[in-house]
Specification:
- The protein is an alpha+beta fold.
Length: 250
């Protein structure tokens, strides 16, 4: 990938390099990004979902303790990892608090009962249920290829719009992004008017399904329309921004 990108932009700068949920997490300086380079990165990320991080042989997603990692069967056995076959496996792969974390939480007023085995079991059950519900929701959304066909644009352009905050997407357990249909003016083959400004309200770490529910639920302030329907009708964007910013759900 490095050689492919360098052939397009020799002096490109990496701003992010790592692994997230067993998928290559790679970003470069936005000023160096082109459609061709975006396609190269997207291809490498797709390939990484089936490539062992140790030997580059064909691989699958495994849980290694509290981590998700893409490994071939041989290296999975060597590391004592087991297949991450279900959403529960994904949900359970979360860091546990260290003794220092617990001490800080207790000093901040968090009750000790929050760290009992029963509380941990309840929390993991909640995480499993949440992960399963989110995956079920995202499985009904559009793929990047679907969006490219809808908008009549290359997939690289769809990825760029997502990174710029002009399209809303959630990341599925397979590492691919999914896009809800409510954000598109399908008859005119474009995103909803004002979508970029509205999505800026959700900048940061927000519940993916919760954001979608906010955009599709009805609002008294919007004449009992959903925010998405309001935008689709070309009504004032400021009304949606005000409703969202005053919402107790954010």
């Amino acid at each position: 990938m490095d050689c492919d990108i360098a052939s397009v932009e020799p002096d490109y700068r990496i701003t992010r390099l790592g692994e997230d949920l067993g998928v290559l997490d790679f970003e470069i300086n936005p000023g160096d990004l082109t459609d061709e380079i975006a396609d190269i990165i997207a291809g490498a990320q797709s390939e990484s979902t089936g490539t062992c991080v140790v030997c580059a042989d064909r691989a699958w997603l495994y849980r290694q303790g509290d981590w998700l990692v893409t490994l071939c069967p041989d290296h999975a056995r060597a590391r004592g990892a087991h297949p991450a076959r279900t959403d529960a496996d994904i949900a359970e792969a979360v860091p546990r608090p260290t003794d220092r974390d617990v001490a800080f939480a207790l000093s901040a007023g968090v009750p000790a009962s929050a760290f009992t085995a029963q509380a941990e079991h309840a929390n993991r059950a909640y995480l499993r249920a949440s992960a399963e519900a989110e995956e079920a929701e995202l499985s009904s959304w559009l793929t990047a290829t679907d969006v490219a066909c809808l908008l009549g644009t290359p997939t690289a352009a769809v990825n760029r719009l997502r990174r710029q905050g002009s399209l809303f997407a959630g990341r599925r357990r397979n590492g691919r992004y999914a896009y809800p249909t409510w954000q598109f003016d399908c008859p005119n083959r474009r995103p909803l008017p004002g979508l970029h400004a509205v999505l800026a309200v959700f900048a940061g770490d927000h519940d993916i399904v919760g954001v979608s529910a906010l955009m599709t639920g009805t609002w008294e302030q919007l004449d009992d329309l959903s925010a998405a329907a309001w935008l689709a009708q070309g009504r004032p964007i400021d009304a949606v921004l005000e409703a969202l910013e005053n919402s107790e759900q954010l």
